[in-house]
Amino acid sequence: xxxxxxxxxxxxxxxxxxxxxxxxxxxPPICQTCHQRNISAPHTPPSNRRFASSTSTTTNTQEPSxxxxxxxxxxxxxxxxxxxxxxxxxASPFKVDPRTLRNxxxxxQATAHPDRHTSTSSKTRAxxxxxxxxxxxxxxxxxxxxxxxxxSLRGIDVAGDETGKVDDAELLMEVLETREEIxxxxxxxxxxxxxxxxxxxxxxxxxxLERMFKEDDLEGARREAVRLRYWVNIKESLHAWEKGKPVxxxx
Length: 251
Prior knowledge:
Blueprint lengths: L7 H19 L17 H24 L30 H15 L7 H22 L1 H11 L15 H16 L7 H23 L3 H22 L12
Helix pairs in contact: 3-4, 4-5, 5-8, 6-8, 7-8
């Protein structure tokens, strides 16, 4: 009877492999022999899906920086937001702080300087931007050019022959007398009093323009811009004075 029965240790050794085989089929990732992960385990697809998602996100975030372009300014005032945070008159004063405008101008030019760019297309855009900044600065710094520019934004061309004609006889007489006084001067010192009077005229014209633009009185601003054009022309004639040299005033 004992010879026909197998020892318990033999039975245990026979069952263990069967049990292990069952376990291997149920949980294949770890091999019971080499203790390494089964290479057929599906770990690659999740990694691929994550990489594809990351690549797509990276591409989408890069595209705007490559294709987006800055919004072009509507007018010269938009180029200087620190000096004119509210835009042109009547939202902002007509008068300008030259130092504030100058500081912002230098900062803008440093940013837009063509030498900061390497590609040809970038240099071309930078040159155009730099030229626009220069023109805007020159226009906004001068009270006369600023007034003419503001009026041009409203469809009034003061620099044109018809719009800029003077119908003020008193103004014309004052201009003609000033021209004769300049031409009759014998020396530079003879013009000092005239220079002071003319500077006062320019200051008064700026005050009037300040009020006209604040009130949005375009006709009043047009008339005063014409007057200011004469006073600025006289100032230039005084600056370029030479004895015996004829004075040419722009009408």
